[in-house]
């Protein structure tokens, strides 16, 4: 592409990839986590609406459970979603990393900025989504929303058997630690290169970029962008939705 025809950062189209192919083992038995209901609506639909609430996001690629793409397509058809957003559904893989890569493979060429957002973080506020996009548009190759930690953290020698006592090795300085959330935002070329280069299994995309070298930028995250991981998180998510409904006055 010549420099004249290349879009400026403010014009670069933004796509979101939503990995939703996990089982949700820590949540307990049942349907794949992303398809479980929060106040009657699948978690995945909440997550899609949260990303599509940003006027900058024009495509959402949903990475469905490997044998669940048809079910996810039906869900999308059955729920109201913004008209200005396009949707694609692709089957996912064995790990989160593989699922994200399969989502990236499906992206049309014009999308120069990519957000990766866990379906398991269904309640992220639109201001957090937009803050991540803005930081990428300002030139950061990779951006993560983060929160300071509420607890003091200990480094331990992991026990051979879960639940056994463990020796404490160190207490990292809490002021320098952050808990990382999604959506994580990327210059597309940087993210694709990270997925092509890093072969070890990691839990988030930004850590792959860290391994390549470019500086990852952290912006303030939000308490409501928490990940639904364990059963108590479902209770919290439904309480947040109930409070939002009260605040919205219906
Ligand atoms: N093979 C996988 C594994 C995870 N994910 C997605 O990655 C996000 C974050 O993963 P996590 O919360 O750890 O979900 P699960 O892997 O489903 O949870 P668990 O480890 O409890 O099974 C979720 O939206 C999940 O659907 C995915 O798309 N493909
Ligand atoms: C990407 C992520 O949401 C960052 O917090 C998270 O690492 C993915 O899930 P996991 O629970 O760590 O497997």
Automatic annotation (TrEMBL):
PROSITE patterns: ISPD (PS01295). Its EC number is 2.7.7.60. The keyword Calcium does not apply. One of its GO terms (molecular function) is 2-C-methyl-D-erythritol 4-phosphate cytidylyltransferase activity. It catalyses: 2-C-methyl-D-erythritol 4-phosphate + CTP + H(+) = 4-CDP-2-C-methyl-D-erythritol + diphosphate. GO terms for biological process: isopentenyl diphosphate biosynthetic process, methylerythritol 4-phosphate pathway. Pathway: Isoprenoid biosynthesis; isopentenyl diphosphate biosynthesis via DXP pathway; isopentenyl diphosphate from 1-deoxy-D-xylulose 5-phosphate: step 2/6. It is an enzyme of class 2 (transferase). The record marks 26, 33 as: Transition state stabilizer. The record marks 174, 227 as: Positions MEP for the nucleophilic attack. Keywords: Isoprene biosynthesis, Nucleotidyltransferase, Transferase. Pfam families: IspD. Transmembrane segments: none annotated. The keyword Flavoprotein does not apply. Belongs to the IspD/TarI cytidylyltransferase family. IspD subfamily. Catalyzes the formation of 4-diphosphocytidyl-2-C-methyl-D-erythritol from CTP and 2-C-methyl-D-erythritol 4-phosphate (MEP). This is 2-C-methyl-D-erythritol 4-phosphate cytidylyltransferase. It comes from Streptomyces echinatus.
């Amino acid at each position: 592409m010549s420099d004249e025809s290349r879009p400026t950062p403010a014009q670069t189209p933004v796509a979101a990839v939503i990995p939703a192919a996990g089982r949700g083992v820590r949540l307990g038995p049942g349907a794949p986590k992303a398809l479980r209901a929060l106040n009657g609506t699948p978690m995945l639909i909440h997550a899609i609406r949260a990303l599509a609430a940003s006027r900058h996001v024009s495509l959402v690629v949903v990475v469905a459970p490997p044998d669940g793409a048809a079910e996810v397509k039906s869900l999308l058809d059955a729920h109201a979603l913004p008209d200005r957003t396009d949707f694609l559904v692709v089957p996912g893989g064995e790990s989160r990393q593989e699922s994200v890569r399969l989502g990236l493979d499906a992206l049309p060429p014009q999308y120069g900025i990519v957000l990766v957002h866990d379906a398991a973080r269904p309640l992220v506020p639109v201001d957090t989504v937009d803050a991540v996009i803005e930081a990428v548009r300002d030139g950061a190759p990779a951006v993560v929303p983060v929160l300071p930690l509420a607890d003091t953290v200990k480094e331990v020698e992991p026990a051979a058997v879960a639940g056994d006592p463990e020796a404490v090795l160190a207490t990292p300085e809490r002021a320098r630690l952050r808990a990382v959330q999604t959506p994580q935002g990327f210059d597309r070329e940087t993210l694709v290169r990270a997925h092509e280069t890093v072969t070890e299994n990691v839990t988030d995309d930004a850590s792959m970029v860290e391994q390549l070298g470019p500086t990852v930028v952290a912006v303030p995250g939000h308490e409501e962008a928490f990940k639904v991981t364990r059963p108590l998180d479902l209770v919290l998510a439904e309480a947040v939705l109930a409070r939002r409904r009260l605040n919205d006055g219906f």
